[in-house]
Write the structure tokens for this entry.
Amino acid sequence: MDRVPDIAASREDAAARRAAASQAIRDATGIDEAMIDALVEGFYARVRTDPLIGPVFADRIADWTPHLAQMKLFWSSVALSTGVYQGRPMPKHLLLPIDARHFDRWLGLFRETARELCSPVAADHFIERAERIAQSLELGVANASGVLLGEGERFLRGAEAWRP
């Protein structure tokens, strides 16, 4: 007789494994929801006043409260593997008028904020993930613009890809 998998037990097991992984990250880095809140609030305060990327956000975000709430969920999922964010960031970025310069500035502000507000181990954890996110989004934006980037190439609108 075939056994029917116990879906509820499988979900409980997956939830327990996620909680254990999340706790291990918390223990190793000191990251918690209060730190994520401070990082997101501090970072986006800088973003809003930045002359390069601030206008990109201002053109699309009228009410920052829901955006910040989503970003806190996003960073909880990214930094702590909580799985609380269920959005799809790539489609939201594909049509934006952004390129390597914007991603570099975003990363610069993010690094500054993380180093200022977090312990070194927590800042490193956040920054490593932010760098991967920026690289992935830049590749997606380039691809959506009809540009296929090679190893080490960067996307600049209205110009050929450049190599750092």
Observations:
- The mean pLDDT is 92.
- Helices lie at 7-29, 33-49, 54-58, 64-80, 89-94, 100-117, 120-144.
- The radius of gyration is 18 Å.
